[in-house]
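Thread title: Can someone regenerate the structure for this chain?

I was given the following input by a collaborator and told the matching structure tokens would be attached. They weren't. Posting the sequence so someone can regenerate them.
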Amino acid sequence: MHSLEEVKDGYKKLGSPAKHFKTVHVTGTNGKGTVSLNIAKGLENQRYKTALFSSPHIHSVTERISINGDEISLARMEKIYKENISILEKFYFFELLTLIAYIYFAEEGVDIAVIEVGVGGLHDSTNVIHPVLSVITNITFDHTQLLGSSLESIAYNKAKIIKKDTPVILGFHARHPLVYEQAKQVNAKVIDLDREYEDYLEENKAISDAALLELGIEPSKEFFSPPARFEVHKNIIFDMAHNRAGFLSLKQKCLKTYPSKKIIAIWNIASDKEILPCLEILHSFTEEVYFYPSTSDRLITKEMAKQLGLKEYDGEQSDLILACGSAYIMDDLKVLLGCL
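Best answer:
Regenerated them for you:
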């Protein structure tokens, strides 16, 4: 991982491509992908040529870079890389994708791009832009190895996407004193949601709507959900909850939507996450939690799963099957469960 200063240097050598279009910058512990998508769709519906940079991907890396819903091609990504190889060759995966996205959006003449932060904000590769609007969905614990183990350090990191004289939308759980302090320091207008929502999808819709209103666009009633965010196929739910707050929201949504259903879970997450708290939440509302093995070296291994007392999924059926956890297993689980 390179420092943000190194990314900024590369960005400037590329001609600061994002200066050619407006941007909306979105961060938050959870919900930022859904909020980014809904802001982008709202802009697109008003006939703006709208770009979206988001993560993670499930099936193909091209999902991360799109214009009006159409993904970039692998050939175009390769072309951009080769044309700028002397600058781009030193950067790592996410840094590289960010810079390629900015180049692509500039070359395609987009009106506005919705940019989802990878991790945090302060040191994130996306944080080389000066947006017309910043959005912070919520602030809870995740990526503590990068952002710090206190809520204060996480809030400080995320608040650093707020730029001078640029309004910021705050979800109910993003209203941290350090965020208000950053906004005051840079003279940023704050639009905060003072209502707590029981349903996290409703909360994401409210944040997206507030952002669109600030951009001068009347939101529609339509709501868009990215893949594997409470994605339902008959009796199977796919959800990429991967931290404590995400699993608490998932539990609340499952019990509210299916109050009397028997649920079993198939699960795996990155080994650097809050494994025990997440597993404890899953056990609290499901009949059984099964482990799903992955070839990714980032996820829990079979040995770790055994230590946690988890069995591999054996084909058991139930009223509801909850396939949850890392994005890395979503495609495989869809194939396994006959949904792809």
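Residues 56 and 327 are 7 Å apart (CA to CA).
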